[in-house]
Structures are given as structure tokens and as C-alpha cells.
Amino acid sequence: MKRISHLVYLVIVAAIFAGCDSDSTVMYKNITGKAGEMVVVISKDSWNGKPGEVLRETLAQPHAGLPQEEPLFDLINVPHDAFKDIFRSTRNIVQTTISSNVDESGIKFTDDVWAYPQATIQISAKNADEFEKIFRENKDRILSYFVQAEKERITMNYNDTYERAVFNTLNSEFDVTMKVPPGFRIMEQKKDFLWVQFDSPEITQGIVVYSYPYVSDSAFTVDYQLPIRDSLLKKYVPGPTDGSYMSTEKRLDQINNVIKHNGNYASEMRGLWRVENDFMGGPYVALSELDASNQRVINAFGFVYAPSKDKRNLLRQVEAMIYSLKLNNQADNDKLNQQDIEIQVEG
User: Is the Cα torsion angle 323, 324, 329, 334 positive or negative in sign?
Assistant: First the structure.
């Protein structure tokens, strides 16, 4: 896309988190390590055996919707006797105990054990087979826990320091709010359409917000959404050369899931975008949310352009931004959502 600036993100990290117990005040460290890193505390034999296999199969599976394969998490296996202070402040930790001496098998989720904001789980099992059973039964919950923790850490950075011009425009013109970091610029604004973008010499991150009338639940299907999105991208998001414009890459299937966001009916779509008549492209994530009170669908389409660079963490940053979307009339939607729930229960 057209580049207009070379600003650098101002990233604000969480300050020291303090907690108290009955004996003393515990000062928590800030988390350490890179975004997406995860320490797995496990014996060498277990890491090379079935427990390690099921851990890698789930936690290091390919991230959906990226042009090149990147894992969901970068796993660092650490033997129990090497799990010292240097590793204990890592942002994501999986601790394993696999022994016939285990009294109670199971899984435990605990926040902020050694640092803040930290996500840890502890899995105890009497043997490898039991470990596999416990992990597979809880794998969706485990994935959701760590993915959500990564998203919340990013969102924390934008709570107090964000681009006011973008926030205020969405608030006044679209009746929604969204927080993006300083450095995002408004590239194009039309009725029910806004394109904002951050550029550096090496990366581009952009978000397109638009709305259309809600007619039925088909408004959240791929076949309904793509023609609307692509028509707007063609009209308002030009590429770097004459006659080029942004569009969805359709040679690969889009990944679309119905979800809830802020209690509202919504869908999340992932895939790749491209520039027609040029050679640019990259991954995207899109959130479409029902504003039932106004009978419209609000869409936030976030994309990344970072040739020759890993894109997982850059896409997660954009994802955190679009998921900060909030409807100004959410209280009205809450009432309608509650009515729907009551009707379903009565039915």
C-alpha cells in the first residue's frame, strides 16, 4: 500500500505488579522473553517421547492464515533442574510432572506466578499415557488460555497511549471506538468507511473499518462478505502503481468462524490479501460484529505487509487492535442479546 511515514511505535509495557500475602509484600517482575515464546518444563525423555509430541502438535502447530509457516508458539524445552530464575519470568510457561509418585493427576491454570502478566499451566500425570489423555481433553482450553494471554498483553499497551485522531474519528463518525498505537494515520475516509495505516521502512500494518446493513445471518458468510469487502478495497485502497488495488486472495480458502464479541453475534475471518496488478500481499484477520440496535454489521479488516519478515506477531498486534472494537450503544445491544437468550430458553 502507499506509504506516507516512517514513524516508530511507542510501546508501553506493564509496570511492576505488587501483591501481598500474610507474611510479606511480593514484588512481581515484568515478564521476559519475546512475544509468542513459551517455556515447557519437562524431562528430556518425556520431551523426546509422547508427551513432547502432543505438546508440539498443539502448541507449535502452524498459525492459521499466514503466507509462510510459523508456529503458534515458539517452544523452549527446559529440564526440571534447569528451571531457575532466568526462565521463571517467561511470559508463558507449561510445567509438567510425570511420575508414578504423583498423588493427584490433573491440570491447573495460574496467572502471575513469578512475573506479570504471566500465564502458566501445571500438568500432573502418573505416566505418559495419562499425560496425553489430560492434555488432549484440555487442549482447546489450553490454547485459548495462552492465545488470549498474548492478546491481552498487546491490548494493555494501547489502554492509555493510543492514536487519538483515529479513536475520535471512529467515535464521532462510526459510533464505535477502537484503540490503535500512536503512528497510525488516516489514509482515506468516506461515509461508513475508514482506512488507517502505520508504516515503517520495513513493515505496514493497516485497518479498514466499514459497515453495511444487516439483513440476515448470511451477512456473516464468506460469500456475502467478500464481494462487499473487495468492492470497497478496489474503490478506496489503491496499490503503489497505476491501476493496482487491494483485494482478497481467493486462490486459498478463507478461514471463517462464528464467534461472540462483547456478547454480540460476530464472525472472524482469516486469510491472505493481495494487490491486483502488482506483487504485494500478506495475511489478514477480520472481525465482523452485529450491531443489532442499529441493524448493521461493523467490520474491521486488519492486514500486515512485511516482506521477508515473520508475520505472526505483527498480525497478532493488528488482531488485538481490531478486537478492541466497542460499540457506543453496547447497552442497547446487551438488552437485545438478553431478549434473544430468553426467547431461546423459552423455545
Answer: positive
Q: Give the ranges where the chain is alpha helix by DSSP (H).
A: 44-48, 50-59, 85-88, 128-158, 164-169, 222-236, 312-322, 330-346
Q: Which of 157, 183, 204 is the last residue of a domain?
A: 157
pLDDT tens-digit series, residues 55-112: 999 999 999 999 999 999 999 999 999 999 999 999 999 999 999 999 999 999 999 9
Q: Provide the domain count of the chain.
A: 2
pTM of the model: 0.87
**Residue after which a domain boundary falls, among 123, 157, 191:** 157
- Alpha-carbon torsion (55, 60, 61, 64), positive or negative: positive
Chain-centroid distance of CA 8 in Å reads 21
Q: Are residues 222 and 309 in the same domain?
A: yes
